[in-house]
Amino acid sequence: MYKVKVYVTLKEGVLDPQGKAIQQSLSSLSYQEVEEVRVGKYIELFVEPHEQLEERINKMCDELLANPVIEEYQYEIEEAVR
Amino acid sequence: MYKVKVYVTLKEGVLDPQGKAIQQSLSSLSYQEVEEVRVGKYIELFVEPHEQLEERINKMCDELLANPVIEEYQYEIEEAVR
């Protein structure tokens, strides 16, 4: 079994209103040192061993997990004991 | 300037209907090797240097970024050149 950690983030230049809202909330809570906030998704997949694992992870990200128009993704694969 | 990468995940045992929906969608797209999906948040904070940085990050997570009742968080701090 593998655990795949997928990080989906907005591409640079894409506006992030959710991040802006969090930054403003932090500022009003007296955390003025936070200059910018960007919000993304963190997705854990527990995957049975499969040939072409990386290729299939890439396809899952392109087809379902990320929106390639405005988002980019990275992932790490590690062995999982369950 | 520091870049803080915050990972917010549901605690073990907390139901994750969004993850379940993704797992079922992946399965119907022929990715049956994915047994379980857990969805969390990935938040990047760009922070000015501050005394007690870690202590303040912990407080931000407890007060705003995560819901301590059902979520847990981890973070990494790295130097950011902007």
From TrEMBL, chains A, B:
Q: In which pathway does it act?
A: Purine metabolism; IMP biosynthesis via de novo pathway; 5-amino-1-(5-phospho-D-ribosyl)imidazole from N(2)-formyl-N(1)-(5-phospho-D-ribosyl)glycinamide: step 1/2
Q: Which family does it belong to?
A: Belongs to the PurS family.
What are the subcellular locations of this protein? Cytoplasm
> Subunit info?
Part of the FGAM synthase complex composed of 1 PurL, 1 PurQ and 2 PurS subunits.
Write the protein's name: Phosphoribosylformylglycinamidine synthase subunit PurS
Tagged with keyword Ligase: yes
Q: Which InterPro entries match?
A: PurS, PurS-like_sf
Primary location = cytoplasm
The gene from which this protein is expressed is: purS
Q: Which UniProt keywords apply?
A: ATP-binding, Cytoplasm, Ligase, Nucleotide-binding, Purine biosynthesis
Q: Mention one GO molecular function.
A: phosphoribosylformylglycinamidine synthase activity
Q: Which organism is it from?
A: Pontibacillus yanchengensis Y32
Q: From what superkingdom does this record's organism come?
A: Bacteria
Q: Which reaction does it catalyse?
A: N(2)-formyl-N(1)-(5-phospho-beta-D-ribosyl)glycinamide + L-glutamine + ATP + H2O = 2-formamido-N(1)-(5-O-phospho-beta-D-ribosyl)acetamidine + L-glutamate + ADP + phosphate + H(+)
Q: Which Pfam families does the entry mention? A: PurS
Q: Which GO terms describe its biological process?
A: 'de novo' IMP biosynthetic process
Q: Which leading EC class covers this enzyme?
A: ligase
Q: Does the keyword ATP-binding apply?
A: yes
